[in-house]
């Protein structure tokens, strides 16, 4: 019986994953407003009722897709509890901590930046998507603040720099908007964006830099 339950749970997870993957292709390719649940279901090879069952509506699909792209998988583990984030907030060297954080932010933005543009556009026309956008922004700030507080705890912040102000600066620079502006509009290589953000934050935040 346990084996049957496990197999069914894995089948449900596989179905959810397939729905999300196909929905993301549609959202990025043609936009949120133009994408319908019928299109998502057709591309995923399931009934529309199956999409409703798993996600409730189109907003639910997009929200989960954003979570999956941000994390890199569909495991229910918050970003701040991911191994790389725990490594960054456990690193005793301030420069090393910041380097881990910015390097992994680049990896995330390479996956998620196109979808963030979709979410931002959708938030301008859909009040519920606007709530999703604000929730994402608050969580992103909270994660960056956790890094800043770690830097403060290990004595890494320069004199006069509070952890709150440091968190704001990381939030501003380690952002999908900045990443898109420089890598998409100005054609910077992602590695160049990473180096610039790390160097700028090091000079602004860290003692002795």
From TrEMBL:
It comes from the Bacteria. Keywords: DNA-binding. The keyword Nucleus does not apply. Residues 13-73 form the HTH tetR-type domain. Residues 36-55 bind DNA. This is TetR/AcrR family transcriptional regulator. It comes from Nonomuraea harbinensis. The lineage of its organism: Bacteria, Bacillati, Actinomycetota, Actinomycetes, Streptosporangiales.
